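The instructor's notes for this session suggest beginning with a concrete chain rather than abstract definitions. Hand out the sequence below and ask the class to guess, before any prediction is shown, which regions might be ordered.
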Amino acid sequence: MGNNDVLPGFDEDTCDSLTVGLQKADEADNCLVLRPVGQIDTYSTRFFQRSVKKAIDAGFINLVFLLDGVDYVSSMGVGAFVQFQKTIKEKGGEIALAKVHPKVMEVFKLMCLDKFFACLDSLDEAIAPMKSKVPIFPKVIGCPICDRKLRVIKPGRFRCAECKTILSINETGAASLA
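After discussion, reveal the predicted structure:
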């Protein structure tokens, strides 16, 4: 299956020093595996950004970058990854980096970005957190004191409008008294 089968028109744009291969990850929702090969430098970063933008615009919000074929990433390339992360997070998706080339991993570690991105050893490890999950929020919970229904859109601390009790809602949606 070629790139244009995965994303029509993807291969219309080309670059001499970088290619990007595509593979759908059917086991995860809206997940695409991108495999750049070459160098992500000052010259090729714009091409790389346009390629990833095509994927995001097509509705892929979970992206895995297989980076074993990239042996150099410039500061512009690193900036592109940071921008992808921001864009994807705003859309409710995830980014993971898999099989990162040792030279590229060195750059990410020097910039402390190995903590900012999920850098994993295998494709399966990278896709696993992106597999179908039922969204927890928004959620309607009952106040444990007065049983008033409260709509919660994210984890945090909330005050019941009826009895003024402060509730703490964790990441799983469980409520407790704060």
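Then share the key points. The radius of gyration is 20 Å. Residues 3-130 form a domain with the Transcription Regulator spoIIAA fold (CATH 3.30.750.24).
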